[in-house]
Write a structure and sequence with these properties.
The protein is an alpha/beta fold. The protein has eight helices and eleven strands. The chain binds calcium ion. The site of calcium ion has 5 residues, from loops.
Amino acid sequence: MRILLVEDDLPLAQALQQSLRHEGFLVNHVNTGEDALTSLTMPDHDMVILDLGLPDMDGLLVLKKLRAKKQTTPVIVLTARDTIEQRVQGLDFGADDYLIKPFDINELLARLRVIERRLGTADSAIISIALVKLDTTAHKVFIEDKELSCSKKEYMVLKVLMENAGRIQSREQIESRLYDWGEEVMSNAVEVHIHNLRKKLPEKFIQTVRGVGYTINKA
Ligand code: CA
């Protein structure tokens, strides 16, 4: 689950990023409405957390422009303005939820999980293929109920492949799920993670489709 965080209050943005990453979300952070709109032209965010008081434009305008382009990415609005009108306006403009600042991070996480469940991508399922079981709540992998030790990135690679079982994932597709913006990407990182995973997983569990990518057969 990749979240775009639009927030110009840097200490708050940093704290949010830390908590969200800790919960297993991928977070991209921007400070301005303009940057948010640019980021949202790329369809690689599953959710947006949008502050309304941005330095260059009203967050409501960002929301309005986003919805005008028929983008349905769920948006949670953060606002210090707790007047009834503005809440209603935000929801009218297509916000999925809103939180009044200051808010408790657990409250935000709870709202995110509600949206996640609605999107049907909730991190609450166990994905089981052949003997391999991925517990996406505990972020753990099991083979025949024996826990497999793997790094966070190895887990993410396996999760992408298992979630998309039966479909081929290119190296770039996998890579994009592994890294937040600005993070240094080793050019062969995906290959290295897959190599390491293969040593731990049943033979031929992850298959290479030469020149295209990787895949796991459906159970
Ligand atoms: Ca602000």
